[in-house]
TrEMBL record:
Pathway: Purine metabolism; AMP biosynthesis via salvage pathway; AMP from ADP: step 1/1
Protein's recorded name: Adenylate kinase
Taxonomic path: Bacteria, Pseudomonadati, Nitrospinota/Tectimicrobiota group, Candidatus Tectimicrobiota, Candidatus Entotheonellia
InterPro entries according to UniProt: Adenyl_kin_sub, Adenylat/UMP-CMP_kin, Adenylat_kinase_CS, P-loop_NTPase
Pfam families according to UniProt: ADK (PF00406)
Taxonomy, superkingdom: Bacteria
Function according to Swiss-Prot or TrEMBL: Catalyzes the reversible transfer of the terminal phosphate group between ATP and AMP. Plays an important role in cellular energy homeostasis and in adenine nucleotide metabolism.
Amino acid sequence: MRLILLGPPGAGKGTQGHRLHEAYGIPEISTGDILRAAVRHETPLGLEAKTYMDRGALVPDEVIIGIARERLAEADTEPGFILDGFPRTVAQAEALDQMLLESQRPLDHVISIEVSEDELLQRLTSRREIEGREDDSDEAIRHRLEVYQRQTAPLIDYYRKTGLLRPVPGVGTVDDIAQRIKTVL
Ligand code: ADP
């Protein structure tokens, strides 16, 4: 099964991605996690990415597309994968289409987790207190939500046109949402 988890920051993509990974035994690929690991290890990629991440901006498409291409070439993605946080722009979605076409691995579902802006602001602000992520400052949170609206929300239409879009309300308990996702797969 090849899935994309689409949704604004704070929608719960990571939490649901983890559940899906456990349920289906396929890798959960989070570009945010890959970037945070690079930042932690102070690799050249990490040093470059950090300047974008800290202010809630997107890392340039060519950098992210390179990361995704490498990760999707690994053997553990053979039975499928769950993408969390990629693609995030139309250019990334087009590059992904191309990669999957080349490897003859069509997508099965694009799960769009829907949460209102007010709820997202609340969640991201309380997550800051728990996790202490540097990009959870008020300023960066606002910027990430703006960037989502401008750059990532257009992917909802992009995937609706392909017939792969599965909208799922992202409110309720983690279990409620996991259950809703299961029913659309
Ligand atoms: P969130 O969904 O809460 O914003 P992520 O962990 O998905 O968190 O991403 C954190 C940051 O990593 C983003 O704000 C961005 O700077 C960078 N990033 C992650 N994925 C991508 C991507 N596909 N394209 C560009 N930047 C990305």
